[in-house]
Design brief:
Elements (H helix, E strand, L loop, with lengths): L1 H23 L1 E3 L4 E10 L2 E6 L3 E3 L5 E7 L3 E11 L5 E12 L3 H10 L5 H21 L3 H6 L1 H18 L2 E8 L3 E2 L3 H85 L8 H147 L4 H25 L20 H11 L4 H7 L18 E2 L5 E2 L2
Antiparallel strand pairs: 1-4, 2-3, 2-5, 6-7, 7-8, 7-9, 10-11
Length: about 525
């Protein structure tokens, strides 16, 4: 029973240990990382990558590591990039890259970035971005880069992203901060655009002023028509009132005539009865008639005067309206002409400024190109002169080094020979010098002979007195004196501090004259 219990305990222990080992080899992948399993994973594959989930990593034959998906922000201060127009520009930008979850790119990252520090990954990506960004800038003009940023960013993405994918990275975002150039070409383009916008605004203002003047003229026209219509209606009403007035007067006159006739008939019928009162009736009738006629004429004249006054007032008002209308039309015409002329002047000024800016920009570009050509030519000439000077200096240095080495070897050889010569003479340096001097006697004699032989004497004229004093002729003395002008070997050896052997002979000592009291020298 004891052995049975021990066996069960051992089995349980082994089982639990196995479960713990298997559980520890089951690896889960976080959402912000990539799990890379390497070792023996599959036929023809170096690793297996997965994002999310979990997998069992076999011990001994497999191992694992993690790649971070955290984005990397890289600052690219690109300076002096050459554009398509050969103008150098500055394109400071910020790139955001990271490891992709695409299966192919994950595999590239596992093969090329696993175990590399993030700083080295950033440096590697920066080098790739620098090269591709310069390539992109070189294929575009400044106008395409500055005005169409979307196309520029798309070109950058098209050139940079495939190269980053090769090492397992992909491009997340590109941010171009500001684009400048050394020749201020971009600023000139901005000034030109601002001038064009200003000119367009001025043209729009002039167009609106023109529309206002046209509207004002239309309003004046409508006003004139309405005034004319009102004046016509007023005249029409006045004429109708006059016609009604005349009809009424004629009716009153007809009624008066009818009444008069009736009165006359009554008077005729009652003539016999009213004979006495006839004169009174006739007088009263005449009086009434005259009074009625006077009243009628007064009323008519008053109405005509009122009508004339109204007509004159209306004409005066019409004249005032006409004068005011003419003044307003003239003022409107004047404002329109002034605005038109001012707009024309501003347009011409803007065209002049725009043309001047364009010519300045072209001149700046030409001057910059010429400047770059001169700088490149000057650099090339300086580099050529520098290399030639360096080559000559190296040649002179090598020459002197070779001469120094040869001279050093010659002196070393002479020193070794002199040392052997002194040793062979038993350490007697004077004897060694004598031997060397003896070796050079032949050359000395040769040079002495050459000194006399090379004298060119075309003609010698000697006046010989032949005195017979036993000292020889003057001609013989001339030749012997010429030979004696060459220093003897003994004197040369003595000057060198070397004494020649006795078998080479010795110089006869010359007697020195001794001065006497009488002033005559005596020979000893």
């Amino acid at each position: 029973m004891v052995y049975f219990g021990l066996a069960i305990g051992a089995f349980v222990f082994v089982f639990m240990a196995t479960v713990l080992i298997l559980a520890s080899r089951y690896k889960r992948c976080p959402s912000d990382q990539i799990l890379v399993i390497y070792g023996k994973v599959a036929q023809g594959r170096s690793s297996r990558c997965m994002h999310g989930g979990g997998v069992f990593v076999w011990p001994l034959i497999q191992d694992y590591a993690y790649l971070s998906l955290t984005p990397i922000t890289i600052s690219i201060p690109l300076q002096g990039a050459l554009s398509f127009q050969n103008i150098r520009i500055n394109v400071p930008s910020t790139f955001t890259v990271g490891i992709s979850t695409d299966p192919n790119i994950m595999t590239n990252a596992a093969e090329r970035l696993l175990g590399i520090p993030s700083q080295k990954i950033e440096d590697m990506a920066k080098e790739i971005i620098f090269g591709q960004l310069r390539l992109t800038v070189a294929s575009l003009t400044i106008e395409q880069i500055n005005q169409d940023r979307e196309s520029f960013l798309e070109s950058i993405r098209k050139n940079v992203e495939p190269e980053l994918n090769k090492i397992g990275l992909y491009l997340i975002n590109v941010n171009i901060t500001d684009i400048t150039d050394e020749s201020d070409y971009i600023e000139s383009i901005g000034k030109k655009a601002a001038a064009e916008a200003l000119n367009k605004a001025k043209v729009d203002v002039a167009e609106q002023v023109k529309l206002g003047a046209i509207g004002e003229a239309e309003a004046v026209k409508v006003k004139e028509v309405r005034v004319a219509e009102n004046v016509a209606e007023s005249e029409k009403g006045k004429k109708k009132a006059q016609a009604d007035q005349r009809i009424y007067v004629q009716a009153q006159e007809a009624e008066a005539v009818a009444g008069e006739n009736k009165a006359k008939a009554d008077i005729a019928n009652a003539e016999a009865i009213l004979e006495i009162r006839k004169a009174e009736a006739m007088a009263g009738s005449e009086k009434g008639k005259k009074k009625a006629m006077a009243d009628q004429r007064i009323y008519v004249q008053a109405q005509e005067a009122e009508a004339v006054a109204g007509e004159n007032k209306a004409k005066a008002n019409i004249a005032d309206y006409d004068a005011e209308l003419a003044v307003k039309q003239a003022a409107a015409l004047q404002r329109g002409e002034v605005a038109k002329r001012e707009a024309t002047v501003e347009i011409q000024k803007a065209q002049y400024r725009a043309e001047q800016e364009r010519l300045n920009a072209e001149e700046i570009v030409l001057k910059e190109i010429e400047k770059r050509k001169i700088e490149i030519a000057a650099d090339a000439e300086a580099e050529r002169i520098r290399r030639e000077a360096k080559g000559e200096a190296d040649g002179v240095l090598l020459k002197y080094e070779a001469e120094a080495k040869g001279l050093q070897k010659l002196l070393d050889g002479k020193a070794a020979g002199y040392e052997s010569l002194v040793k062979s003479c038993g350490g007697d340096a004077k004897a060694a010098a004598t031997l060397l001097m003896i070796e050079k006697i032949e050359d000395i004699v040769k040079h002495q002979v050459e000194a006399i032989r090379n004298l060119k004497i075309d003609k010698i004229t000697v006046w010989d007195s032949a005195s017979g004093d036993g000292k020889g002729s003057s001609t013989a003395n001339f030749v012997s004196s010429l030979i004696k002008s060459v220093p003897p070997l003994q004197d040369i050896s003595a000057m060198a501090g070397v004494e020649l052997p006795a078998y080479l002979g010795k110089m006869k000592e010359t007697e020195q004259p001794v001065p006497s009291k009488g002033g005559n020298a005596e020979k000893k």
